[in-house]
Amino acid sequence: MDAPLRTDTPDQRVTLHMDWADFEQFLRLRGESVSPRIAYIDGVLELMSPSKSHEGIKKRIARLLEYWAITEGITLGAFGSTTLKRKRGKVGAEPDECYVVNRSDMGAVPDIAIEVNWSASGLDKLELYHRLGVPEVWLWENDRLQLYRWRTSGYAKRTRSHFLPTLDVKWLEPFIREPDQGRAIETFVEALRRN
Q1: What sign results for the dihedral spanned by CA atoms 175, 68, 150, 51?
Q2: For residue 3, what pLDDT is reported?
Q3: Please, which residues have CB within 8 angstroms of residue 172's CB and are 6 or more apart in sequence?
Q4: For the chain, what is the radius of gyration of the CA atoms?
Q5: Contact between 126 and 101 (Cβ < 8 Å)
Q6: Most buried among 28, 110, 112, 130, by the most CB within 10 A?
């Protein structure tokens, strides 16, 4: 289960330059479509069509996290890849997954945004989420899950989530790396029962 995930399917990315009004118009024209995913900061729009590998990792993280939350009696309000934007910060994004924790206010900024960095992006995702006001960002990069919590001086790496302090995210990594989603969940459930 510790074998690295295959990297043979890169995400497809295109970068465009446009002002905020053009960005808003683009979002109106695109409508509620979930593809391509967008990230916008300071006049740069990145369109990303996620690969199957990217989507598989995203889905495993979400399924594992949501199952864990159910067993712990924690309510996760899932936003999915909803469009977050803030005109004042000249920023917009569609995280791979995002959640509010133990509250029902789905109109608010999420507590946690999850990003799978499967292939290189030209945008600073942490700066993007800071301007959106997201307090905690989880990044999957190089087969590792890194947590960042906003502090007054910027995002700082953390070993535990502020919102889910009893979850050992390093413990999740081998299950996320498992390419078979069914097997990942099965072994995860077995591990939870043993603990």
Answers
A1: positive
A2: 47
A3: 61, 64, 65, 68, 145
A4: 17
A5: no
A6: 110
